[in-house]
Amino acid sequence: MATAPPQPLSDHDLATVDRYWRAANYLAVGQIYLLANPLLTEPLSPDHIKPRLLGHWGTSPGLNLVYAHLNRVISARDLNAIHITGPGHGGPATVACCWLDGSYSEVYRDVPRDGAGMARLFRQFSFPGGVPSHVAPETPGSIHEGGELGYSLSHAYGAAFDNPDLLVAAIVGDGEAETGPLATGWHGNKFLDPVHDGAVLPILHLNGYKIANPTVLARMPQRELDDLLRGYGHDPLHVSGDDPRDVHQQLAAALDTALDRIAAHQQEARSRGSAAATRPCWPMIVLRTPKGWTGPREVDGQPVENTWRSHQVPLSGLRENPEHLEQLAAWLRSYRPEELFDEHGRPRPEVLGHVPSGDRRLGSNPHANGGRLLRSLPLPDIRRYAVEVIKPGATLHEPTRVLGALLRDVLRATDERRDFRVFGPDETASNRLQDVYEASGKGWQEEILPVDENLARDGRVLEMLSEHNCQGWLEGYLLTGRHGLFSSYEAFIHIVTSMANQHAKWLKVSRELPWRMPIASLNYLLTSHVWRQDHNGFSHQDPGFIDHMVNKDPHTIRVYLPPDTNSLLAVAQQTLDTRDRINIVAAGKQPSFDWLPVEDAIHHVHRGVSVWDWAGTDTGQEPDVVLAAAGDVPTMEVMAAASLLRAFLPKLAVRVVNVVDLMRLLPPRDHPSGLPDSAYEAVFTTDKPVIFAYHGYPWLIHRMTYRRAGHDNLHVRGYKEEGTTTTPFDMVVRNDMDRYRLVMDVIDRVPGLALTAIAVRQRMNDKRTEHHAYIREYGEDLPEVRNWSWT
What we know:
By secondary structure, the protein is α/β, with parallel strands linked by helices.
């Protein structure tokens, strides 16, 4: 005898959740189409329709369905929950639900929860001066920008880390599920500690279609899909159908089952402790509903509901097509708005019966406005870690190794509060940050073998060979009110360039919203950089991430190029506890010269640009030439060039300048930290040649300074895509940034030297030729290069 399906919803609960769903669907349709007449108090006319119809209907009914059911379980269980909307343009749905639960009107007082507010809600959607068509910073309750697909799960796990009482419901669109980042995002459950972390409930929403094609997972046989999801470590619960009453009951049962299992897994793990706990097989929900459900079934004789045609705007040309206009009116009335809203446009109490109160509402949870929860990061005094510099350029240290000790102690200082993590794609030790393992192991929930090192169930260092996951985890962590750092090989940070774009845009918009509280900055440490990837070769040599990111909002981006170990410590002090920024720090891990005592390094980083008077020969006079550097290897080459000029052209007045804060080169009108023109000109002069050795592509410096006085005198050397497997010094020679080339540039550009210093120039050129022959015979750099130090 067949068992009847579970019926967890009473008639009253079923009616309540269905009313909310219908109301949200009505509001979603209204946002896409209506310019006026929000309650249909008069016959729909062309004047009531927006001139440009924008937005996406197809995913909205499913998103509204999930939101309605999450309301019920949050209220019934007093859950602390947020939700992440993975399907790209689900804006109409989430905005509708936030307006219904009152969160929207609390942060936007000009959009009250009544007829006038509904009219404004409809008008502003995808309208000039209004709100975007996707879930964005403007949407209360969101930490996930829906404009780009693939990051919902990594954001969800990032939010759940170190939030033991938080549930993150992550709605994964079936189009989104085809992206590479989402495919690796499923593995977040192998890093989720059931003792100290919260829970992620993935809800895979299969409505069958993308813009114009079927989706891969929706067309897979259920057994094959189950095998895939179980292989990812999940226990799938299936909900499917097109009868609303049946689907409501199925989804309610699935949610109750999933939440019961999550609670049981957490209770068992927490009773045993992290060391003894094993990785649970976490539940997830597979939700199959028709695309564009409850919308027009046919338009102009073509099927629409449950096809790709419902993806965006099912009915078009309404101002010119009376038949389509009538279809829209019938569609809106099918939700029976008179049952949902009173005569003033306010949601009826029967609609809001399951809506949680206060901060339990999905649109108001403080975890989705992480700045409300953020605490200052307890940073130790960097002087405890500083290396002694008795004489500039006489000793060497590995900058990132010293930084690792500082990060170790930040982890220790946050051990109880658990609000700081280090992320990286299997490169923490490679990047010389391994001291962090003394404070925290690497988070890991899979099997641990005797040969493994530094793995820990409760570890707060997260490594996975997926830059997408590391970035997404960190973003989710920051957006929910915590701090962190992402360490990566410089060349491969490009993998997440698009994600960094989206985060930069999120920060820019959030800064303009008074109700969005500032969050901790996203800190990148780019090491194993272009100039010391001589052993790995051309594929590992690319400093271009900086070029891309400086295009973003100037209030958001900072780029630091510390020349030595103490400067890196000072940069860390300046960046780790900042707000609403993306801080990019490019620093070496190989032994490099120590130039500045720690106090001088602190002042240097504070200034951003400094004249190193002890390195130059222009004391008390105007310089004949300025030698400038930005980056550790460029600094070494400039210092070596200055030493050569001191020896061969002792009467030449040389000024040595070091740039640690790249954005200081921009004028103040282009960047808030830009040097005033007077300060820039005092450092670089207006009429003297400037030979500038830069860490990255040289054209960026020209772009940043083209409006500065004296730009015509600026000559920049940097990486110009000449690389291979070779020696460290050959990298700078190949790219014409070596000390000998810099001396030749000085001779070529200082008036008169081309004639009087021709012998010196020839000698420098001969050294380059000698270098070329030497490395091919001996496989290492010239002794005078290997053994050079500042004198």
